[in-house]
Amino acid sequence: MSKLPNITTSIFSVMSQLANEHGAINLSQGFPNFPVDERLLQISERLIRENIHQYTPMAGLPSLLEKIAALTLKQYQRNINTATEMLVTAGATQGVFTAINTFVNKGDEVLILDPSYDSYEPSVLVAGGIPVRISLNDDYSPNFNRIEAALSSKTKMIVINNPHNPTGRIWTNAEFEALELLLEKHPKVLILGDEVYEYISFSHPHISFHTRPKLMERTIIASSFGKSLHVTGWKVGYLIAPEKLMAEMKKVHQFLVFSVNSFSQHAISEYLDVVDFNEISKMYRQKRDLFQSLIKNSSFELMPCDGTYFQVVNYTKISTMNDVDFARELITKHGVAAIPISVFYNDATDRHMLRFCFAKTDETLIAAAEKLNSIMK
């Protein structure tokens, strides 16, 4: 009997395969198509011949843990105990899976805010939990009336992705305060903060759970070097949580992957001495601004993009077709691949929105924009 009977091939794979078949420009999957930093390549070339290819300690390479602690202190003014509050994971997705499967038991409910990244619900289902999907407002802000109505004695956890994939929205301070007020009534509910795009913010600074003292003791924060350093194929992320929570997650992690790729940990540890995360955010801001400027006069309506490397557009002026079919037609007729937003909703809410990934070379974005600008109703 399948634990995931309703899970089929992901929309990301479907759209990428279709893009390959039709030679379309792929702005669907969320990974960069430009080279990694030359400095990281030089570090990697040197390290590959060193004696670093055996298991690291289960929780992570000690030097990397120290660098992460220093980064967290610099960015968020939060002191982390590397021995008890941190865990290097095989990508943030494994971190999310570990967190959910550590604390969610059969029948526990987990609140997920839609549109939501597609790994949350399967992780809950494998744990035997019950996903409770709650739609955000039309502007993708949290609807606290709906969240409050969904909270109950069965609620074990709420998953909050900020900056948000797929919409690119960032929570405001007022929204965090509303969450704090609401969760005061539910002291046992845990928070899983998916902050993999934390270093890619534009319109206003990303507010992290690291900076919320009222929530910190119940929050597990997932981060991603794959996203932050545009090395998604290295699959290295990390979790930060209070000791009482981390101790339990380490038990699951130990028998899930034990330890993460040693070479990647060594290379990232050295690279953190030279990389400037502000420059990374600046680079993505330039790409967002370029992409927006290129298609601002098209028939697509640009939605706000506060962070991440995703741009959501509305295509109502072009077609009344549902977003999945329109995304397919965009590939087959116009040569550009995107992701329909309805697939991120439990009820397939369709507001005629598509998600484009602008983590691409300028040449790719210019070529894609030329095709998008030619599309008329």
TrEMBL record:
Domain Aminotransferase class I/classII large, first and last residues per copy: 25-371
A family per Pfam: Aminotran_1_2
GO terms assigned for molecular function: kynurenine-oxoglutarate transaminase activity; pyridoxal phosphate binding
Gene Ontology CC: cytoplasm
Protein keywords: Aminotransferase, Pyridoxal phosphate, Transferase
Keyword Iron listed: no
Cofactor(s) for this UniProt protein: pyridoxal 5'-phosphate
Family: Belongs to the class-I pyridoxal-phosphate-dependent aminotransferase family.
Name by which UniProt lists this protein: Methionine aminotransferase
